[in-house]
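Hello, quick one for you while I still have it in my head. My current little project is about how a certain protein chain folds up. You're getting the sequence in one-letter code plus the fold written as tokens. Would you mind checking whether the tokens look sensible for this chain? Here's the protein in full, and shout if anything looks odd to you:
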Amino acid sequence: MADARPLITLTTDFGEADYFVAAMKGAIYSINPSVELVDITHQIPPYDVYSAAFTLMCCYRDFPGGTIHLVVVDPGVGSARRPIVAMTNSHSFVGPDNGVFSYIYGLEQVNRVVHVTASHYFRSPVSNTFQGRDVFAPVAAYLAKGVEWRMMGDEIDDPIKFNIPAPTISAGSIRGQAIHVDRFGNIITNITTAELTEELMLANPRVKIGAHPLARVLTHFAEAQDGELFAYVGSAGLLELALPKRSAARTLEVRRGMVVEVVFQGN
């Protein structure tokens, strides 16, 4: 059986209307035409590192071992921020050192983070405004080709990490916050089934956000009444809030960082 083609995923805020994604793919194929490219998304809101980090966190484990995840959401392009490669036993992550891999650092045993300084692995000349094509794409392509990380730069021990809020549990409640809004307007929180256990699900939980009425916790969308705000555990294992066929975030004027509380009312 032939060896599988090396796999690189792409996550950017470039959108689909311009040439940026195509240019990155061309740069990769020019170095390693045997690679397979998979688009995770190019619809990350512009410069939204937090959204990119969340999106990557939700799906990187769905890819096979050996996958290289290339993420270019880079408000600091052209600045002194470092291009890096973060490596675990199963995956490698290529992108700017701006916190975009913060969830990976928290969830995985990261064996090393490499500051890429070997400019002969970059496209020449390197644009001040398009390092996705000129730096990150070539680095990912060479990694997929088997180039040793030691050839690219040195290990660092101080990668940028943004604060990942953790839920707090007290008598009768779980307190978390909204960390993401998806394209349907569903509000995704940082509360997981580790906090909201099956046992606690029997204690008649209700979810509060802002000054809005308490929301029931249901198992699927069809259970909700028309116009009812409700909560459920989504496919990423996180507690979410939704309105049937409407944007809960827009209707409730919810923003990332708002407090979400689960309270228990008993049976």
